[in-house]
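Let's see one such:

===
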Amino acid sequence: MFKPQQPRPTPQSRPGALALDICLAKTYGQQQPGRKVLNHCHIVGEVAKALLGRMPAWLVAELFPQGSELIAACHDLGKVSPTFQEKIYRGTEHYQQNSKPGLSNAKPETEKLWGGHAGVSQATAKALKVGRYIPEIIGQHHGYSPDLGIRKADYDEFGGKVWQERRSELLDGLKHLLACDFPVVSNDLQAKALAGLTTVSDWIGSGSLFDDPTHDWRPNISNALDNAGFVQPSIRSGLSFFDLFGFEPRDIQRQLISSSQQSGVYVLEAPMGIGKTEAALYAAYQLMASQQATGLYFALPTQLTSDKIHERVTRFLTKILTADSPHQKALLLHGNAWLKQTELGVEGNPNGSWFESGKRGILAPFAVGTIDQALMAVMNVKHGFVRAFGLAGKVVILDEVHSYDAYTGTLLDELVTALRGLQCTVIILSG
């Protein structure tokens, strides 16, 4: 069992580096010093822990081992560096250049050469030998892997050995506060899910509820998760196919419904008009009602088909969700979705605007969109790992797969494999 370490002492005057307790993560209000790096990292770690607490145990057990919150907390190790601290202090009132040890030669404009503080976080974690995949997970929290070149954690640009010691102190402090050590990350896909958890926890932990450094942040974690929409939907149980769609299922629909009562990959190939959509939606309902799935993403080849299915999925949700459940409407995800959202108005958005950002949309429990939104979870694109995290544990319906070309079909094969690794159920519909 891990025994929490006491944080190393942080003397107020060590030549060449700021004391850890004056290293800022951000500013606040009118150019006032905001939360310290240790404090902000601790908040993000606790947000990650609370977010995992809202997920089903079977999903956490497969993808998020004990200690995952420490990975999230360590995302900003690199803010304890001379270039970042010089940059943040320049934004404070009464700033005086060369007034703090270790900052006199810092040039914040050079941070772009190594991906900013995220690059320093990655180099730090690698030097501290925290485990396979973890340095890259930490370094990716702004959406991509920083290019460090030959730079290592104790390079002069990062403050040399004395600043690396400060970052090591920060890690010790986080281990103590969170009472855990790093987990073992088993594979690339699990690393993607953990990178998504890290980034999403940072987004939430950087929100306005945590801005004021004089306020106790702990009571705000639950509200922050609620406000972000991470509230488990309440599914009505015992609904029949007739209850949802107003007619009895055909034989081919019954076959899919009876065979898809546990997680897996299912294919329904049938002519147009046979009711493939209803069969897939009822299969998804069964899995969500039995708590074997966390939500639904319905993927289609075009924006037009997405728009049409979106209306049907939203009607479906009004029937399967209790009246007090959030997310009463499915989010629409494609390049021109904002046009339809404008037509729907405020009431067309599930739980406000937090999910509306393109890279966040797939985090919503229920969404309809184009296939590219799902494919980005397995492609080398910025924040692709956030999409992987957002899909984890859901039912993913891939419709009209017969319409895709050979290249997209190859990507679909990779997507289905990844979705199974992310504990998704995949339902493939083809005409």
